[in-house]
Every structure is written in structure tokens, then in C-alpha cells.
Sequence to fold (280 residues):
Amino acid sequence: MKIELLTTFLEVSQTLHVRVAAENLYLTQAAISSRIKQLEEELGVLLFDRTQKRLKLTAEGHRLVKHANEMLIMWQKLKQDVGMAETNSYQLFVGSMMSIWDIVLQDWLQKIHRNLDDVYLYTQTYSPMELRKQIISRLVDIAFLFEPPFIEDIVNEKVATVPLQLVSTEKDQEITSIQNMVMVDYGEAVNSQIMRDYSEFNVIRHHMSQPRIALNFILEASGSAYLPKQMCFEHIRKGKLHRVKGAPEYSRDIFAIYLAKSHKTDLIKDALMLFPYVRN
Fold:
């Protein structure tokens, strides 16, 4: 199977339109149709339902999307590994949950860029379950999540403990008077604790996946949210946010996971040594 067949399939699966896919890939519509037909013949299944005006993925097509993405990532890693072997350079594939990027990882990536100049970074966002699968299949070298898996072949290492505090756009606000609270996803352990502590107040209105999104939202629309201390420090200093009196504080541990027998163990350890937060 040729890589360009998978690339073409993924483009069509996203656009669901042969003409648009052809324009994006700088190919003719006939070439796009030919590649999709060739891929379907090789797999022995129909990938798209063509009975409607607009293309629609079949069940087999939906299943192929995930595998095609993984194969393209593996192909990219293969090309980079072969090419970098000649230049004494290294590539580091980093995966993380969406909400962790803004909390701690952006500073870490900058430190790798400044201190490990022979390392090329590739970043991806996945769900916790997908991160485990990506690590085991070696598509990701190191992953970050809130609740690490306890699997024999995977190393878990705590890289940060992030304090969370309730802040509000209203000054001198107390816990009994908060409104428009935004619930941020910090993983099941912290989420359930916050829900228990605030169940009697009935103040949680919105749910958001990233602390940065919640921060921008309350600054624009007013409200309150539990945010990492380092993220809201500057806004508190400028008087745009205020700590809520009497609110309980929480903390969220962040873990790095990687294969115990990874051939990049030394590189991973060097990268983790640059982590900007004190590890216990």
C-alpha cells in the first residue's frame, strides 16, 4: 500500500468532497477518485458512501481513519529516524492531554528548544486512553496525563504538582456568593472532589476542557473558575482576577509516562531534567 493513498484518503475523509480534496492536494479530481478506488480495491471494502450528493464515510472508512493516521505518524518517524541517523540528531514525539499543554508543557518545550539543539520536537494531543495506546505502540515517546496507568512496561514519573485556586472577576467575593462558575477538566480525581464540595451551592454553569479557555472566558464574560496559580498570578496582580475567600484549594499531579525499554530513554530523561517545576 502506498503512503499517498492513505494521505489522499485522510484528506477526503476530512473534506468529504473530491473537488476540495483535489485543490488541497494539488491534484486533479480524477486522480483523487482513482486513488480512493485503488485503496478500496486493495482493502476489499467501500470506504465512502456515494449514494448521496455529499460523500459519507462508511463504518469501514471510520475505522480506517484511526489506523491511517497512526501509519502516517509511523512513516514520518521512520523517515526522520533514517535521515537523522546521518546528522546525529534526534526526534522526540510528545503526547499530552489537551488541558496539560497550557498548564506546564509550553515552558518545557521552550527549554528543550534552547538546551537540546539536536532534538526535533513533534507534539500531538490525545485522550488518556489513546496516550497509553500511543506509548505502547511506540508512536509517542513520552506522554503527559493526570492519572497514569499502572502497566509493567511503562514508567510513571511525577513531573509536577500544580496548585489550583478559585478565582473570580468580582472583588471580595465569598464562596457562598459565587456565580457563573466554570468547571475545568483536571481529571477524574479532582473533578469529583470539586463536584462534591460544591454540590450544595449549585453554582457550576459551564464545563470547559482547558484552563486557558476558562481563563479567557471569565475575563471576557465575568465569572469564576479553578485555575493553576501560575496561570492567574499576573491577572491577580493587575486586579483583573481575585481569590475567592473561604474556597478550598486543590492540587493536581501531572505524570510523564514512557516505555521502560525505549531506545530513547536517555533522551527522555535529559528532557525531563529540564522540566520547569520541582519534582518530588
About this structure: The first strand starts at residue 48 and ends at 49. The longest helix spans residues 59-84. The CA atoms of residues 102 and 144 lie 12 Å apart. The mean pLDDT is 88.
